[in-house]
Specification:
alpha+beta; Translation Initiation Factor IF3; 3-stranded antiparallel beta sheet; 2 helices; 38% helix; globular; UPF0033 domain-containing protein; TusA-like_sf; TusA-like
């Protein structure tokens, strides 16, 4: 479900804009960056936070 929300947010953005996503759980941490990269988006950073969440920054692929 998290990727669906991420995908919808990316679809509404202009190419080159940056999306910040907060992830919880091992599956989203592994799958969302991989899937976003497979779709041509750039993974700018992935940072594990002390509270157990992961901060992911994505740049939407060019048009």
């Amino acid at each position: 479900m998290t990727f669906v929300r991420t995908r919808l947010a990316l679809d509404r953005m202009a190419p080159g804009q940056i999306l910040l996503v907060l992830l919880r759980g091992e599956e989203p941490r592994a799958n969302i960056p991989r899937t976003a990269a497979e779709q041509g988006h750039a993974v700018l950073s992935q940072e594990d936070l002390p509270d157990g969440t992961t901060r992911l920054r994505l740049r939407k692929a060019p048009g």
